[in-house]
Amino acid sequence: MAGRAAAPGTAVLLVTANVGSLFDDPENLQKNWLREFYQIVHAHKPHFLALHCQEFGGKNYEASMSHVDKFVKELLSSDVMKEYNRARVYLDENYKSQEHFTALGSFYFLHESLKNIHQFDFKGQPEHVLHNPRTPSCSLSEKDPKTALGGRAKKYKKVTGKEIYSDTLESTPMLEKEKFPQEYFPECKWSRKGFIRTRWCIADCAFDLVNIHLFHDASNLVAWETSPSVYSGIRHKALGYVLDRIIDQRFEKAAYFVFGDFNFRLDSKSVVETLCTKATMQTIRAADTNEVVKLIFRESDNDRKVMLQLEKKLFDYFNQEVFQDNNGTALLEFDKELSVFKDRLYELDISFPPSYPYSEDSSQGRQYMNTRCPAWCDRILMSLSAKELILRSESEEKVVTYDHIGPNVCMGDHKPVFLAFRIAPGAGKPHAPVHKCCVVQ
Fold first, then answer.
1. H or E stretch covering 242
2. DSSP3 helix / strand / coil % (the chain, rounded to 5)
3. How far is CA 401 from CA 294, 349, 352, in A?
4. For the chain, what is the total number of helices (H) and then of strands (E)?
5. What stretches of 281-431 show up as alpha helix (H) in DSSP?
6. What's the average model confidence in pLDDT over 33-40?
7. Which of 319, 341, 318, 333 is CA-nearest to residue 375?
8. How far is the C-alpha of 396 from the C-alpha of 245, rounded, in Å?
9. Which residue would you say has higher pLDDT here, 354 or 250?
């Protein structure tokens, strides 16, 4: 990868991708998806690459097992990734466990030029104890006293070789994994929402990476009823739980990045009122229950043209261009869910169109489905200390990029989102005059 030494520091690429569609239609979608992903890797040439996947394995994990194995093998062995000589893959394959299954997959790749990278052992087990790696010849047995965060921190382990962990991730010492309690989202009989956390130390800078999947909007009609919606409140509760968990007293605090499918939605009531300002609303109810099953918004004049039809899983607006014009940024004023956490989380400015719900037709790259109001579900968020880490640059060069992948190609119903940045030299050294990114927030 020529040109790697052109800019100082450690190049980092974080990617989040809800990949459920890839396993429901692997023949048509996976090749396109991988090609676009590899192009981003090639363009940014990261030393450290983290890929957080949600809905890994698709809707029917058991039926998709062979496609899962093929996808993982391709990522680990492709020519594009050949310079990444160390990798950690964590796949939640415990699909038979309603109590634990999250369908999350976390991939971490380390470039051969990257020296002295360590991973945190959350359970404090001796260095020679490993949980069922699929590649037992790759060992983490090399002891290293690295404790980047001071006396209370447990041992970090030097990362060597390539390893894949799956099935019962709960007992894997190098991560924390939790599924949200059922009472968080009682409407869903078997939710697969939760998070996986890992901690890394690169260039004396320690940070957590959290793969997260929050609850969706079960009904467009219910989401429309109140502002903010009841689903927004459920997501607020779950994300608050994760953030509290990250900074609790069990471990030293570190900078953190939380990236995944947050399922953040535009404030539906406000969006509909804005899109249909001059419309009249017709309500259709079920004959037997009198329950509202459809809302039809028509122009007051212009032959009462239908502007919007709303059902539980239908959001059919007559002009999709409003979600694409100027990358849909006019709609960002309705993207309000993160504002609750403005004192705890930071996000770079969004300049890409809503990441969901795109058509799953492999010939359609820019078309949205009419199932939901398009929204920025897939995000990369960070603690305020992580913000200081990525925005500190010692040159005029643009070193931070926040964007989506595959703008003109079908990537499934979600477009992956990425953040590329560099960790400045010396950023994690506690006594550096300007770099204190990894000190407690």
1. helix 230-246
2. 25, 25, 50
3. 41, 10, 11
4. 7, 18
5. 384-391
6. 98
7. 333
8. 37
9. 354
